[in-house]
Amino acid sequence: MTPPEREQEQAQEPGGPIAVERFTVLPANEASRDDLEAVFGTTGEPARCRCQFFKIRDKDWSSVPVGERAAGLREQTGCGTPGAPSTSGLVCYLDGEPVGWVAVEPRTAYPRLTRTRVPWTGRDEDKDDPGVWSVTCFVTRKGFRRRGVTYALARATIPFARERGARALEGYPMITRPGVDITWGELYVGSRQVFEEAGFTEVSKPTLRRVVMRVEF
Predict the structure, then answer these.
(1) Which residues pair with 23 in a beta bridge?
(2) What is the average per-residue pLDDT within 99-113?
């Protein structure tokens, strides 16, 4: 049976979802600055946040202007620098066109995450363990949504983290149900279905709408 999320994609996007094999996913330092800008755009929440929400503590968020957030993203990704020693995520391409982004780094790279209650409810976990990596944010470029971009990105996070020394990788997706509305903005963390299809396993359910999904290496 087709998963509810795929049925929704087929209903709302002309042409339906695209097979993950058609996408190419690269470390963000191998993407150009222009590619990164194309994915985040100039309007909407991705353009305002620049994937800095978990990087900046709550008390400091409102005082950091968008331009500084954008500069932070460029520095963290090392975009346009293939030889950079590290990067903070992956960029997805379809036929050479940049269409999506996912943030994936050691969990310790996200100060706000380690101080947020939800991921830790019901878990006895060392928050400062550098061997555990996290998938915190997906961005799909406007015009390419509901085509399967997040599925391709989620799948690519696993070899990316493993090859860089992670002993585990986890995400914090939303639970989607037929007939229950979830806004696009809420799904920046991904859906449970996306992580399940990538090979993650549910390890906890801190709230009715949130789960922690994980891969052990």
Answers:
(1) 94
(2) 96
